[in-house]
Amino acid sequence: MAEILKSKARIDILALLSAVIEAEFQYVKKRLNLSDGNLSSHLTVLEEAGCVKITKTFIEKKPKTYIRLTPTGEKVLLRYLDELSRLMKKDAH
User: Fold this and answer.
1) Does some domain include residue 3?
2) pLDDT given at position 67
3) How many structural domains is the chain composed of?
C-alpha cells in the first residue's frame, strides 16, 4: 500500500473516485490540476495495482476515458484513512 500511495496525487485520485461511480479523464485532470501525462502515469500505477478500472470508448468519434474505483482501490483508500486516523489520535495524546 505504501508504494501505491507514495504520491499525494494518487491519494487524491482515489479520494475523488470514491465519491462517484466513475469519472471522465478530463474531469479528474481539471479537478486535481494535473497534466495529461502526470494523470496518465499515476493511473497506470493505480491500474496495475488493481485500484482503478479504466475504460476507453468513443463518443461522437471522440475518444473518452473513464476511471472507476475498484473494490481493491476502496480497501486501499480505507486502510490509508484508518492509518491516518490512528496516527492523528496517537499524536493527540
Assistant:
1) no
2) 98
3) 1
